[in-house]
Design a protein that fits this description.
The protein is of the alpha/beta class and 439 residues long. Helix content is 24%, strand content 38%.
Length: 439
């Protein structure tokens, strides 16, 4: 499958609108360079290894117009409930590239939590030092698109030796179709600590939306971050998410990526462990139904010695939906004493759904412990029979088995409201009576 090769009119028009807002010269130059890279870079095809099984036609940009802003600044009752029911205490809400709500009462001195446009004015040197450091236009067609056209992003900075006690969170929503792009930049300084939530959700609206999301994470020596990305768009959205991190010496990242909504969603989760002693625990959970297509791409890049990464992605599929997992562990030549693990497990709830799993290793050092594994299969009939023999109906037995299957991931999530919400959404997809009506 080959997509259209360029969108010059859309890109140029959107870029003129962005750069007319008084952005600094260096950012304007980076945007223009990124747009040129976008226009000269071919779209991925199924001949590319990372995109081999992706249903690329569902990520087409054809016919889209740039989202100039929200139709209204109303948050919506559903988003209000999500904010109230989330673990986040400091909150930003983005809609159509604009901030429509900011509630960030932060007690810790020196912590910055604001929209990226405000940060460019108020903290220009800090933003310039880190923006495009982890995600830039050289990383592919869609990365170049985001690098050129992002708007309404979020900037978080935690100074050295500061622990932010309460979770911070940004919610991105929409009320119209078109093309939108957002960027998140999280910088946690030396020995600092943060919990951050990134959520994408919407009520149903007219038109098709393609949303590009890029998250840049920079952890300094000894920094610790818990990061959650939760995607639950309405079904007329194609979601492209790039989550990339750089980890310095003795830093630790705990990340969770959840895919539940959208028509099609691709999540790229990549981490470069640059310092000795760095650790990355990477969790992923997805549940596809009603023909959804989910695509997960992960990269555990060990560039330093004595670093550790542990990946566990699990998901369930039903109603002729599809899932593609492609993950690779790369260990550089000097990265001795690496510990790296990768596991992907898929549960098929009908014979019309399909899961493709491609775990890979690329080892350049000779003193490492690395392993990868993958399983895909249906619900075990003996397990279903056992539960039914104890008085459960076939439907309830399946609910119990699916919830238990996914609990291996959710049991490692330390944010109780996130875990509770995801469990409710899983139950709604399984058709548990009364659950969908309460959401």
């Amino acid at each position: 499958m080959v997509l259209e090769t360029a969108l010059p009119a859309l890109g140029a028009g959107a870029l003129r609108a962005l750069t007319s807002q008084g952005e600094p010269d260096w950012l304007v130059a980076r945007r223009h360079a990124a747009l040129r890279t976008f226009e000269s870079t071919p779209f991925p095809t199924n001949r590319d290894e990372e995109w081999r099984y992706t249903q690329l036609e569902r990520f087409s940009l054809a016919g889209l117009e740039s989202v100039a802003g929200p139709l209204t600044d109303d948050i919506g009752e559903g988003i209000r409930r999500r904010i109230a029911d989330s673990d986040a205490e400091g909150v930003l809400v983005h809609k159509g590239g604009e901030v429509i709500l900011s509630e960030a009462a932060i007690a810790e001195e020196g912590v910055i939590f604001t929209d990226l446009c405000s940060a460019l004015r108020e903290h220009p040197d800090l933003v310039r030092e880190h923006l495009y450091r982890v995600v830039d236009a050289s990383q592919g067609k869609y990365a170049a698109l985001n690098s050129a056209l992002w708007s309404g992003g979020t900037f978080v900075y935690v100074p050295r030796n500061v622990e932010v006690a309460l979770p911070l969170g940004a919610f991105t929503t929409a009320d119209r179709g078109g093309l939108s792009a957002g960027r998140t930049l999280v910088v946690v300084d030396v020995n600092a600590k943060l919990t951050y939530l990134d959520e994408y959700t919407s009520e149903p609206f007219d038109g098709r939306l393609f949303h590009s999301a890029a998250t840049e994470i920079v952890l300094m020596d000894g920094a610790k971050l818990r990061y959650v990305s939760l995607q639950n768009w309405s079904r007329n959205v194609a979601h492209m998410s790039m989550i990339r991190a750089h980890l310095a010496r003795d830093s630790r990242l705990e990340s969770l990526s959840v895919s539940l909504g959208a028509d099609a969603a691709r999540t790229e989760v990549e981490c470069r462990l640059e310092g000795p002693g760095a650790e990355w625990e990477v969790l992923g959970l997805y549940f596809a139904d009603r023909g959804q297509h989910f695509n997960q791409y992960t990269l555990q890049h060990h560039a330093a010695d004595h670093a550790r990464s542990d990946l566990l992605f699990k998901g369930a599929l039903q109603d002729a939906s599809t899932e593609v997992f492609s993950g690779i562990i790369v260990v550089d030549e000097g990265a001795q004493r690496t510990d790296a693990y990768q596991t992907n497990r898929n549960l098929l709830l009908d014979d019309r759904s399909e899961a493709v799993s491609i775990p890979q290793l690329e080892i350049g050092a000779n003193d490492v412990r690395c392993s990868h594994g993958s399983t895909t299969g249906p619900v075990q009939e003996d397990q279903r029979f056992y539960l039914m023999s104890r008085g459960l109906s076939a439907e309830v037995a399946e609910h119990v088995l699916v919830t238990g299957f996914l609990h291996e991931v959710m049991g490692r999530v330390t944010l109780p409201k996130v875990a509770e919400y995801v469990e409710q959404m899983v139950q709604a997809k399984l058709g548990v009576p009364g659950v969908r009506e309460r959401l």
